[in-house]
Amino acid sequence: MSAKQSADGPKDSRLEGEGSSARAAAWLQNHPSQFTCDGKWHTGTYQVDNFTEYGFGQLKRGVAWVQFCLVADEAGELVLSQNEWVKVKLAR
């Protein structure tokens, strides 16, 4: 999962492209816990914070371009990829 954000937090369509993290004021990426597929649909809530594996900067109030991917196996076959602008909620 990764999140990219512009300097003041508004939507910037330039962050939607591959390799666009260089344009971002904040880019955070991590890999949530392992998932086991049971063949059923599930929903969940995930957080991106400053304790990430890669990235720079800090997310601010506003929106961020988020990419969430699940892979099927060690070969990296992509099963699901969802990209969208989401509202950034800051921890209290």
What does this structure look like?
The protein is mainly β. The chain has one domain. The protein contains no helices and 5 strands. The chain has strands at residues 2-5, 26-29, 54-56, 62-71, 78-88. It has a 5-stranded antiparallel beta sheet with strand order 3-2-1-4-5, with no helix packed on it. A hairpin with a 6-residue loop joins strand 4 (62-71) and strand 5. It is globular and about 40 Å long. The two termini are 22 Å apart. The relative contact order is 0.29. The model has no long low-confidence stretch (mean pLDDT 83).
How much of the sequence lies in strands comes to 25-35%
Order of helices and strands: EEEEE
How many runs of DSSP E, i.e. beta strands?
5
Largest sheet: 5 strands, antiparallel
Mean pLDDT: 83
- The shape is globular
Helix content: under 10%
Question: Largest beta sheet: what is the strand line-up?
Answer: 3-2-1-4-5
Task: Please tell me the total number of domains.
Answer: 1
Radius of gyration: 14 Å
Category by helix and strand content: mainly beta
Count of DSSP-assigned helices? 0
